[in-house]
């Protein structure tokens, strides 16, 4: 499904050139709300939502009705669509890969295209506070026509992008938390975060669009050196500490007994000398 979606994206981007377009990324199993941008539905409004060519929801103020058509496409949306009766925004719950594609909301005054991208695999990365970490693109070389985007966080904030001609780092976003900490490899597009802090923990998404399109997700966790040890390592350290303590006690006992033995031996020699 993922590759089929990229094929569709390659051929359909630009078809609706007069419409506003928005890319939305969401993890499989999560929910997503596609915002219509409408603050208030007016009398007489007719607002429709489509998935590709299929009508899936509409609000008709002329008939004072709100309808969700979740039985289309063999019922794939059944029980998963929620329509806001104040803003006409559409929420899709428990996302699956087959929901990826083009969504369109329209009324006589506006039209917005949403490109919904769904991903399922997440690579976990753990790094100590103050260290650097590189999120690898797995590319060996950026080819002509390749375009790379890096996003961060639940709101998918764009933090870096590049192609064969130039690259751009947006490290002033999110109150500047990434300022002077991001580096893009100009050969592979891999992203390095230097001097990492806890506010840099979270989800990173990499999208590569070109001859070999791909989407990768990383979950980065940041720990302090004090709390770096897992339960197994903590147990090992506790056991080693105990062994060191036992060895110390054994050494002290042995040392005390050796000294007493030497003193007793010296006392015996002294007694024998006096008797003689």
Automatic annotation (TrEMBL):
The chain crosses the membrane at residues 234-254. InterPro entries: Ig-like_dom_sf, Ig-like_fold, Ig_sub. Keywords: Membrane, Signal, Transmembrane, Transmembrane helix. The keyword Transmembrane applies. Residues 1-17 form the signal peptide. It comes from the Eukaryota. Residues 21-119, 122-223 form the Immunoglobulin domain. This is Immunoglobulin domain-containing protein. It comes from Onychostoma macrolepis.
């Amino acid at each position: 499904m993922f590759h089929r979606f990229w094929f569709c994206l390659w051929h359909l981007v630009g078809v609706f050139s007069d419409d506003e377009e928005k890319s939305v990324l969401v993890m499989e199993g999560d929910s997503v709300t596609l915002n219509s941008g409408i603050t208030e539905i007016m009398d007489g409004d007719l607002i429709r939502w489509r998935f590709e060519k299929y009508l899936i929801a509409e609000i008709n103020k002329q008939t004072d009705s709100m309808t969700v058509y979740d039985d289309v496409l063999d019922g794939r949306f059944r029980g998963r669509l929620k329509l806001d009766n104040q803003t006409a925004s559409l929420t899709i719950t428990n996302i699956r890969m087959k929901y990826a594609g083009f969504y369109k909301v329209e009324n006589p005054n506006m039209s917005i295209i949403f490109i919904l991208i769904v991903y399922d695999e997440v690579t976990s990365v753990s790094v100590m506070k103050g260290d650097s970490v590189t999120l690898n693109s797995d590319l060996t070389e950026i080819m002509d026509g390749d375009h790379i985007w890096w996003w961060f966080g639940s709101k998918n904030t764009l933090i870096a992008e590049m192609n064969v001609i130039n690259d751009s780092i947006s490290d002033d976003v999110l109150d500047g938390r990434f300022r002077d900490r991001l580096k893009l490899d100009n050969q592979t597009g891999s992203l390095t975060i230097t001097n990492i802090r806890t506010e840099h923990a979270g989800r990173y998404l990499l999208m590569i669009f070109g001859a070999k399109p791909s989407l990768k997700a990383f979950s980065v966790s940041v720990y302090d050196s004090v709390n770096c040890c897992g339960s197994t390592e903590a147990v090992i350290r506790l056991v080693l500490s105990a062994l060191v303590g036992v060895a110390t006690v054994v050494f002290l006992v042995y040392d005390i007994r050796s000294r007493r033995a030497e003193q007793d031996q010296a006392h015996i020699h002294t007694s024998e000398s006096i008797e003689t």
